[in-house]
Amino acid sequence: MSQQLGIILMVDVEAAIKADTLKGNAYLFDNMKLQGSEGQGTDSLISAVNGTYWCDGSQANEQVLNWLPYGVGSLPPTIPKSFLTDKSKNSDLRALSEFEQLADRVENTEKDQFNTVTAIINELKKITASTGQKTKVKSKRKTQKRDLGAFGEKLMDVTGQLVDVSSEDQVPEINSLNPIITDITGEAVDKKIIYPAAYGSPDLVTDGWYWAASVDTSKPGIYAYTMHVQLYKLALDQGEWTWVPVDMTCDAYLKITSGPKVNGFTGGGIGMLPIM
């Protein structure tokens, strides 16, 4: 049975965009440290992939790699997936209720306080300021608004509070969009050591897509591969706050070994267990 090996890519999105590189701003981890992986927590991870073969020399089984990218400073993936959606929708519903209350105050209870247009405008500004700042996401192909469930159309700070941004010079510590892996290339792919592809999944933590690859463990050695990563930079585009894609790459390595398949109880070859 194939073993599932997980590789986590953590990116300091703000620092990476500022430096225009993932070098020194990416942190890689896997679940094979006890099996010999090296460089945990750095941007040069060497993942140990231990393959096995049968007594006749044929490959016993493949291994499977799974890549999952996350942003440092982004909201943690452990919170409910509907958090962004609920926060945005609730702010709009609250604003509608406050507009209704304002109309009642202007017409009935507080007529004297709203005898000028300026007074009404000031109240309207207070209400709209609490609803947050809507954004759109620009892709390589077209500019489109993403569903609230996918990214959230409103800006949030790192504590999950909606924020309103007035200028590019006054952007607070915002909840950055998670990085996206768009491709896996490099030596390991060219030499047919790994066979990567993007897969659909019901796992909502990954928005339904993730990159995985089967590994040919019959060819021991150290092989490099490149992750193509898309980050998103917040900027004003034609007067609208827009998440603009920024493409970068990050290199990592696979250290593939191969040993005989052994009995987990005795450490010997595959066969009948001894009778004690």
Overview of this protein structure:
- With 276 residues, the chain is α+β, with helices and mostly antiparallel strands.
- It has two domains: 3-74 and 176-260, Inclusion body protein (Immunoglobulin-like, Sandwich); 83-170, no CATH class.
- It contains four helices and twelve strands.
- It has helices spanning 13-19, 83-109, 117-129, 187-190; strands at 3-11, 26-30, 46-53, 59-61, 63-71, 136-138, 143-144, 180-185, 194-200, 209-215, 221-237, 240-260.
- Strands 3, 4, 6, 7, 8, 11 and 12 form a seven-stranded mixed β-sheet that branches. Strands 2-1-5-10-9 form a five-stranded mixed β-sheet, with no helix packed on it.
- A hairpin with an 8-residue loop joins β9 and β10.
- It starts with a strand and ends in a 16-residue tail after the last strand.
- Residues 141-152 have low confidence and may be disordered.
Short description:
With 276 residues, this protein is of the alpha+beta class.
Q: What is the CATH architecture descriptor of the largest domain?
A: Sandwich
- List the total number of helices: 4
Oligomeric state of the chains? single chain
Q: How many strand units?
A: 12
List the helices and strands and how they pair.
Layout: E1 3-11, H1 13-19, E2 26-30, E3 46-53, E4 59-61, E5 63-71, H2 83-109, H3 117-129, E6 136-138, E7 143-144, E8 180-185, H4 187-190, E9 194-200, E10 209-215, E11 221-237, E12 240-260
Parallel strand pairs: 1-5, 3-12, 6-12
Antiparallel strand pairs: 1-2, 3-4, 5-10, 6-7, 8-11, 9-10, 11-12
